[in-house]
Amino acid sequence: MKIERCRLVFSGSGGQGVITASIILAEAAALYDNLNAVQTQVYGAAARGGSTRADVIISNAEINFPKVLQPNVLVCLTQESYNKFYPIIRPGGILLTDARYVKLNRKVDARQKSLPMYQNVMDQIGKPIVFNICMLGAVIALTKLVKPDSVMQTLSTRIPPGFLDLNRQALELGMSLGEQA
Amino acid sequence: MNTNVKFVQGNEACVEGALYAGLDFFAGYPITPSTEIMEHLALRLPRQGGKFIQMEDEIASMCAIIGASLTGRKVMTATSGPGFSLKQEALGFAIMAEIPCVVVNVQRGGPSTGNPTHVSQGDVNQSRWGAHGDHAIVTLTASNHQDVFKMTVEAFNIAETYRTPVILLFDEVVGHLREKLVIPGKGKIPLVKRLRTAVKEGTDYHPYLPREDGRLPMSDFGSVHRYNVTGLFHDMWGFPTDDPQIVKGLQRHLVDKIENNANQVLNYKEFYLDDAECILISYGASARSALHVVKNRRLRGEKLGLIELQTLWPFPNQLIREKCEKAHYILVVEMNMGQILREVKNAVHFPEKVFLANRIDGSLISDGDIRNILRIVQGKGV
């Protein structure tokens, strides 16, 4: 990993799987890529249908302060979360949004990547449940934070074996979208 | 992957520590932000032969672990502020009857139901003086998962050694954040076993007669010895008494067994203290932010140091006095209105050099918050 310390914020609507995605990324970094990682998330009503947020810090060094104030990478999967969080992105950072859910209507000092992730998941896989893993694929293609293998290893400890292939497809789909962006 | 390495929440690190220490009975009532402790124990404890009970409320949970402890189990309950308030009466009973038990309070904002999903460190004094009457108690805390694990094991060891309740005072940030935990191999951390009496069946057993070293051997309640357990002042058989000599002796014993061993239960960490002109004193999640500031300022050559307290009670007065002797000023970093600040001011020779950097709005105190107070203390304005 080139970046010494990468701060990410994942935001969206409760149920889209942004918190799960943040945990999988952080766990992959901490357990399989020998990095330090810390994950935190908002609690309460937000996690049950409202706009939700999870913070991840990945670093070569020890991480003390665990919250993200200015993310290098900001992921917004709803218009509401985009409108709420776009001002906090670190200048020059990556702002990843889903083309179906978010209209880019702000001028932001960031690399704005609007990718048709949801559309591709529905067209090519047909299961919205892996939307978050597709998004995670795009994030790791854009940042090279962790190895795709590490994500798959993490997934294999968390989901039934029968669903692994579905997730692998989604991860690869997201990576190819991220690489083309 | 090594199964001893996990990526977990602080609450699960506490569960791992408790299981490592030999927890075999848990009773609780779920409450944010401590619920994950119950959830994980509901799954894990029965699998290894332990007992898990969700009780009707926090009071019953506390009473259940007291009963189970008397029968020889290693016990724990977990809660947050409102539940911790409910437990206080039974906690006082456990102090008086000298029942080893571990009570976890993952703090939220308060008073009352307060700010359930947000961080606070407002229960520091409640953990000391929540129960009425003169008493001593041990309260431990931690700022990262490795230490949450370690302090949880330590809590069980202290509870058994001194026959006392031990409070584990965590906070929402440490309880909920996820980071790496390495579980030490069996035997790496020594465990204190229940000290059982050698008195044989049919021979007079004195449950409240201390040995020379002050420890009181127990007998599993309901097995071979019959004895009384009460919240009243009691004699060496456990029967109520108002004999002034016995009342005085027991009162002294309850306080002395902990206060006289304060150094045995003292846990803390220090960072860059040798030449520190400004010393930060912090604990729990606040200590993570304090360490962040200290490390960054050291890179610039500023002489900052940090004392991270892990034993909050008994408060380490002597340690603070000695370590802070040469400091130009001291900054207590905590998320309340100055509960440890008061103790630090009492401990040092120059209370006017002690300042408070706090945050009380439910957000984790940040490095920026601490830096702003530092600037004011250093006379640099904001």
Description:
The complex is a heterodimer of chains A (181) and B (382). Chain A has helices spanning 18-32, 79-85, 117-125, 131-143, 148-158, 164-180, and strands at residues 5-13, 36-41, 51-59, 73-76, 93-98, 110-115. Chain A is of the alpha/beta class and 181 residues long. A six-stranded mixed β-sheet of chain A has the order 2-3-1-4-5-6. Chain B has helices spanning 10-21, 35-47, 58-70, 81-97, 124-129, 145-162, 172-176, 244-259, 284-299, 317-323, 339-347, 367-377; strands spanning 5-9, 25-28, 51-54, 75-79, 101-107, 138-140, 165-171, 178-182, 268-271, 278-282, 304-309, 311-313, 329-334, 354-358. The termini of chain B are far apart. In chain B, α3 (58-70) runs parallel beside α4. Chains A and B meet through α1 and β2 of A and β1, α7, β8 and α9 of B.
| CATH architecture grouping of chain A | 3-Layer(aba) Sandwich
- Oligomer status: heterodimer
Strand-pairing-aware structural class of chain B: alpha/beta
What is the CATH class of the largest domain in chain B?
Alpha Beta
Helix fraction bin of chain A: 25-40%
Uncertain segments of chain B are none
Give the ordered list of helices and strands of chain B: EHEHEHEHEHEHEHEHEEHEEHEHEH
Distance, first to last CA of chain A: 20 Å
Number of helices of chain B: 12
CATH architecture of the largest domain in chain B: 3-Layer(aba) Sandwich
Share of β-strand residues of chain B: 15-25%
Mean pLDDT rating of chain A: 93
Average pLDDT figure of chain B: 97
Indicate the overall shape of chain B: globular
SSE sequence of chain A, one letter per element: EHEEEHEEHHHH
